[in-house]
UniProtKB/TrEMBL annotation:
UniProt domain Exonuclease: residue ranges: 9-182
GO MF annotation terms: 3'-5' exonuclease activity; nucleic acid binding
Protein's name in the database: 3'-5' exonuclease
Keywords, comma-separated and alphabetical: Exonuclease, Hydrolase, Nuclease
InterPro entries for the chain: Ribonucl_H (IPR013520), RNaseH-like_sf (IPR012337), RNaseH_sf (IPR036397)
Gene3D superfamilies: Ribonuclease H-like superfamily/Ribonuclease H
Length: 254
């Protein structure tokens, strides 16, 4: 009897780096955790995940060491990024897509050449759509606000290390995949974020539907692409051509 085929996966990844602007900055750790579609049609975490320290090819600045606490001595003998990236980012033939929380950051380092052009799911952008009532949308706030079923508290610590962060993100992804399709999550992830509430100014904290027309107009040219995208979406909604906020059941079936 032939062996049972393994399920396809979406691989959640998280990077710890020397900074936010490659090539001036490099990767010093990558972590991953897979999420797979079960026979019952539900998505669940799959496998143990893992992490690899990476030599970033330059000193780690104290400002970033203060976030992830990775020391230069710990990565001095580690492999370089291009020696580990492809085998972690492309677990062929099982991978459907890659995912990360605020995936725009990871995508700066995980280039299409390294991922073989993989689709990405941004769990931050999808959380804005699916859970707009959250007090914040960071990985950790979502963790404690939502308290996803089955998460091991200690396995998700310490925060700001690659595997624990990927592990926590995988629970958000699992629940998002069980609310919306893979195609829908990828579509949302290719656009800027749809921000549920006004972030600053006299209307701070209000939903976009609550602010007046003149205030909304002021956000159409905001420097933040997420704010511009959201303001334009609300303008479209007021013109009968779009929606802002929680998606309808029909939207989730797309």
């Amino acid at each position: 009897m032939p062996p049972k085929p393994q399920p396809q996966i979406i691989r959640v990844v998280d990077l710890e780096t020397t900074g936010s602007a490659p090539p001036a900055h490099g990767v010093c750790e990558i972590g991953w955790q897979d999420v797979a579609l079960g026979e019952d049609g539900r998505w669940e975490l799959d496998g143990e995940g893992g992490s690899i320290l990476v030599n970033p090819g330059r000193p780690i600045p104290p400002v970033t060491q203060a976030i992830h606490h990775i020391l230069d001595d710990q990565v001095a003998d580690a492999p370089f990024w291009h020696d580990v990236a492809r085998r972690v980012l492309d677990p062929w033939p099982r991978r459907v897509a890659l995912a990360a929380h605020r995936a725009d950051f990871e995508q700066q380092f995980c280039t299409p050449t390294l991922t073989k052009g993989a689709d990405w799911i941004c769990t931050w952008k999808c959380a804005l759509r699916l859970w707009p009532d959250s007090p914040s949308f960071s990985n950790q706030v979502l963790r404690y606000w939502r308290r996803p079923y089955g998460i091991d508290h200690e396995r998700g610590l310490p925060a700001h290390r690659a595997f624990p962060d990927a592990y926590v993100t995988a629970f958000h992804l699992r629940d998002q995949l069980n609310e919306a399709s893979v195609a829908q999550l990828i579509e949302w992830s290719t656009n800027p974020g749809l921000i549920p509430r006004v972030r600053y100014g006299p209307d701070r904290g209000k939903g976009w539907r609550e602010i007046d027309h003149d205030s909304l107009m002021g956000f159409l040219t905001d420097r933040d692409p997420d704010i511009r995208f959201t303001a334009n979406a609300e303008m479209d909604r007021r013109s009968g051509g779009g929606a802002v906020g929680r998606p309808s059941a029909q939207d989730l079936l797309l």
